[in-house]
């Protein structure tokens, strides 16, 4: 099934590139790479490498978008105009083996490799966006996904009950308030951490309906109470990003996320922890070490440029939150807290940029008794 999605993606790319007038399309190319590592022996670190190709205005004012991100390939038409205030987006996506970081099973910051397994999917979705006016945007999305799961040979526990391969119907309804004032370059694929100015926030309501809902995650004869998906999985997500200038060289940046879910399992729960741009960030905590559908997390920092003429930026941020079932025992009503401090460097030279982050996780809540240092290095460029 995954190969079928790959063939469809390649066909879509070929059709897009062969379309009349393709030479006139302004193409934007970007590359990025990075690595996020906890500086404690035996804990996992992960990296990524990204190639991004975007054809501006390729179809009715919308973009043709092709992206390869480590083990994920996406082919999409984005922002196709259906009217003065309506846009259409359609996409195909395939992620192989490492979906959801499920090969790593982490509790209290420590990894149990025998509970990890390969996870792959192929999905397709169509979204219609209504530009109401001003900063208000409403979007409806309908998508379908096919999951596949496999044991890691010689690693996964033989008695571990894996999720069953399944089909998923995944509708979403989103509201976005967008009053950000960033320069256009901040939204390039090579920019891992945009320098937010103004305010942007959003709420998403979603359902997952699967054709197979068997419990998984326990060992044979002892099912997991944490991974017993509901007949209809209900989820609500909320996010906020804000920034404000504190003077000609300094700014304040704020990030905040929250979630509430019912009937979720570790396939749908948000990934929390790490210093990279693909998760709910939590300094000093391993990448995706907290999988929680009921949480509130925030991070605030002050970022300074060495001079008014400099493009480089350095900062100090503090982050933390409260998370349900931090020890992955199935007690969704039990919450734990975590705190962290991060040093941040964002260095820019024209088309090129580099990132360095160092985080320290305070020994509280689910990480009590375990001081954690983490670091992330990354780079990106546009062409």
Spell out the blueprint of helices and strands.
Layout lengths: L1 H17 L8 E12 L6 E15 L2 E8 L2 E10 L4 E10 L10 E2 L2 E2 L6 E16 L2 E15 L15 E4 L2 E9 L17 E13 L22 E13 L4 E13 L8 E2 L17 E2 L3 E10 L8 E12 L10 E15 L2 E10 L10 E11 L1
Antiparallel strand pairs: 1-2, 1-21, 2-3, 3-4, 4-5, 5-8, 6-7, 8-9, 9-10, 9-11, 10-12, 11-12, 12-13, 13-14, 14-17, 15-16, 17-18, 18-19, 19-20, 20-21
Describe the structure.
By secondary structure, the chain is mainly beta. The protein has one domain (2-382): Beta Barrel (Porin). The chain is 4% helix and 53% strand. It has one helix at residues 2-18; strands at 27-38, 45-59, 62-69, 72-81, 86-95, 106-107, 110-111, 118-133, 136-150, 166-169, 172-180, 198-210, 233-245, 250-262, 271-272, 290-291, 295-304, 313-324, 335-349, 352-361, 372-382. Residues 1-21 have low confidence and may be disordered.
Concise overview:
This protein is mainly β and 383 residues long.
- What is the CATH architecture assignment? Beta Barrel
Oligomer: single chain
Instruction: Please report the distance between the alpha carbons of the first and last residues.
Output: 34 Å
Supply the CATH superfamily name: membrane protein fhac: a member of the omp85/tpsb transporter family
How many individual domains? 1
Q: Major sheet, described briefly?
A: 17 strands, antiparallel
CATH topology: Porin
Give the CA-based shape: globular
Please give the number of β-strands: 21
Give the overall average pLDDT. Answer: 90
